[in-house]
């Protein structure tokens, strides 16, 4: 099945014209989709969702003129128009790298020697001098083609006019998405505990954020519905944007089940909510139990076990999905992609032109050379299978250490099924000074004592968007950063800080 879909991608490429070789070529996802346009219904028009800024935004005349100057049916144009320096003014002539080979992580017949990758001025695959110049805001054709094929392979959105746009990573994409969808003073709904970068991006644009309660399955549809049904316009315009991290949620580690996602999508349809799906941990699928690896994992099995993304459920075109290479390749690349309806992507590209302009050319070369030229789609999936196995092992170590060292009579943590976070809830009722000291005081004490003991954790209040769950403190622990060998020691040190604060004495021997 996966083989057949990969073959279709190859056949589509073989039938297509070569990628354009000019500066900042204008391309879109429609050129790269395997499924021909017209086979699915179109997305709904969403004009009423756009902010005043993005409704009034016009595209740059300089960019429009440089686009029309590149019509291939006309004779070559000598440009005295845009101030795009000629390639011989760039001091770089080549870029060379080494990386892991495409089947390094496939269990059978794996290569291990690093592969050389490079780009030089004038080459056909990805001409370095074009990468070094100003690029098109939706990304280079090379990377846009790979992202579009990947999205079709993994999510296959159920409407026709979806497109991708390459981004400078999700933080940048989020800033742009809020600009497109929200006006100053608007409310944005999000999970009760969420990524602080999102709160900062929203607040910087004068948006107000409201946390929706969560349970073990992530954002609560009941609470979401009650907020929307009971909305009082005296608080401001009813929220029209819902931001979520549905898989391996940051910070709580919860992952929404398929049923939960469908419930929430239904509510979004009923209340005309636009969904921002921020999903950097989607591919870290760690299994439901410790040591779980339900049989041999191939890319095909791996894909079949992933939960449905909101993008894959989106029949109306009301989801903007944000993907990033930060967690699956490297954060310093500053690259990712968003997927949404053409109407939304059009607005997104216009805002990009007025801000970050385009993703970095050399970063796109690096992504293309590794993902497309060296690994291919299957190689990327093998890499994700490998990463998931690594994180599964680390999760198991950290979780076992929590079970062993934390005082379980006051601490509770669930095994995360996806992502890189473990969420510890500490019951305050057993604190010797419960009632006399504030929760944030106790949180500070534990945090500082843990630091003194040589371990850094994250405080729950840094992520809180709703009233602290009464009677509990929270801490976020990640198994992504430390050396694997230090994970157990780190939990032991954290446990010492918790025990000291609650005057519980040493960990009993097991
Ligand atoms: C939920 C979430 N969104 C976005 C980001 C940042 O992504 P990027 O590096 O692509 O800007 C993070 C980083 O931790 C995250 O946890």
Summarize this structure as a short list of keywords or feature phrases:
binds pyridoxal-5'-phosphate; seven-stranded mixed sheet; pyridoxal phosphate binding; PyrdxlP-dep_Trfase_major; Aminotransferase_I/II_large; 2 domains; pyridoxal phosphate; Aspartate Aminotransferase, domain 1; alpha/beta; 510 residues; 15 strands; four-stranded antiparallel sheet; PyrdxlP-dep_Trfase; 15 helices; 14% strand; Aspartate Aminotransferase, domain 2
Describe this structure in words.
With 510 residues, the chain is an alpha/beta fold. It folds into 2 domains: 2-36 and 134-385, Aspartate Aminotransferase, domain 2 (3-Layer(aba) Sandwich), CATH 3.40.640.10; 391-501, Aspartate Aminotransferase, domain 1, CATH 3.90.1150.10. Helix content is 36%, strand content 14%. It has 15 helices and 15 strands. It has helices at residues 2-15, 52-56, 61-68, 128-131, 141-154, 170-181, 196-204, 221-229, 258-270, 299-305, 310-313, 342-353, 361-405, 439-452, 487-501; strands at 94-99, 115-120, 162-167, 187-191, 208-212, 214-215, 218-219, 241-244, 274-278, 319-324, 336-341, 411-412, 421-427, 458-459, 472-478. The chain has a 7-stranded mixed beta sheet with strand order 3-11-10-9-8-4-5, sandwiched between helices. It has a 4-stranded antiparallel beta sheet with strand order 12-13-15-14. The longest helix is centred in the last third of the chain and has 45 residues, at 361-405. It is globular and about 85 Å long. Bound molecules: pyridoxal-5'-phosphate. Pyridoxal-5'-phosphate is lined by residues 169-171, 195, 197, 245, 250, 278, 280, 324, 326, 331, 336.
């Amino acid at each position: 099945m996966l083989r057949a879909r990969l073959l279709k991608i190859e056949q589509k490429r073989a039938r297509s014209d070569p990628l354009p070789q000019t500066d900042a070529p204008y391309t879109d996802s429609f050129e790269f989709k395997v499924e021909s346009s017209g086979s699915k219904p179109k997305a709904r028009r969403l004009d009423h969702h756009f902010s005043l800024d993005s409704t009034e935004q016009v595209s740059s005349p300089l960019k429009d003129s440089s686009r029309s100057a590149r019509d291939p049916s006309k004779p070559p144009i000598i440009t005295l128009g845009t101030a795009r320096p000629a390639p011989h003014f760039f001091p770089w002539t080549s870029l060379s790298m080494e990386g892991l080979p495409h089947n390094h992580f496939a269990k059978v017949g794996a290569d291990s020697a690093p592969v050389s990758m490079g780009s030089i001025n004038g080459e056909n695959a990805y001409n370095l001098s074009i990468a070094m110049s100003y690029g098109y805001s939706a990304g280079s054709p090379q990377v846009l083609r790979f992202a579009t094929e990947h999205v079709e392979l993994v999510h296959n959105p159920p409407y026709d006019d979806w497109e991708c746009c390459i981004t400078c990573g999700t933080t940048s994409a989020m800033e742009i998405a809020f600009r497109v969808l929200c006006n100053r003073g608007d409310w944005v709904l999000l999970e009760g505990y969420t990524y602080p970068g999102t709160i900062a991006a929203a607040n910087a644009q004068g948006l107000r954020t409201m946390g929706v309660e969560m349970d073990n399955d992530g954002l609560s549809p009941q609470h979401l519905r009650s907020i929307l049904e009971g909305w009082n316009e005296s608080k401001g315009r009813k929220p029209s944007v819902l931001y979520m991290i549905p898989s391996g949620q940051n910070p709580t580690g919860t992952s929404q089940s398929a049923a939960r996602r469908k419930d929430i999508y239904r509510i979004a349809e009923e209340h005309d909510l636009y969904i921002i799906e921020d999903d950097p941990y989607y591919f870290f699928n760690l299994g439901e139990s410790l040591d779980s690896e339900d049989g041999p994992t191939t890319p095909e099995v791996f894909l079949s076990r992933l939960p449905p993304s909101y993008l894959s459920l989106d029949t109306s075109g009301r989801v903007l999905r944000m993907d990033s290479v930060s967690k699956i390749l490297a954060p310093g690349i500053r690259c990712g992609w968003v997927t949404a309806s053409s109407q939304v992507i059009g607005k997104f590209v216009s805002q990009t032109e007025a801000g970050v302009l385009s993703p970095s050319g050399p970063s796109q070369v690096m992504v293309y050379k590794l993902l497309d030229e060296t690994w291919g789609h299957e190689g990327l999936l093998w890499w994700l299978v490998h990463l998931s196995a690594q994180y599964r092992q680390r999760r198991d170590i950290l979780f076992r250490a929590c079970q062993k060292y934390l005082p379980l009579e006051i601490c509770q943590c669930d095994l995360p099924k996806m992502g890189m976070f473990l969420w510890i809830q500490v019951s305050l009722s057993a604190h010797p000074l419960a009632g006399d000291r504030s929760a944030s005081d106790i949180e500070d004490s534990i945090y500082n004592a843990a630091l003194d003991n040589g371990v850094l954790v994250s405080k729950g209040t840094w992520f809180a968007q709703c009233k602290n769950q009464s009677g509990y403190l929270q801490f976020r622990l990640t198994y992504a950063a430390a050396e694997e060998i230090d994970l157990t020691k780190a939990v032991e040190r954290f446990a010492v800080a918790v025990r000291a604060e609650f005057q519980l004495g040493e960990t009993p021997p097991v």
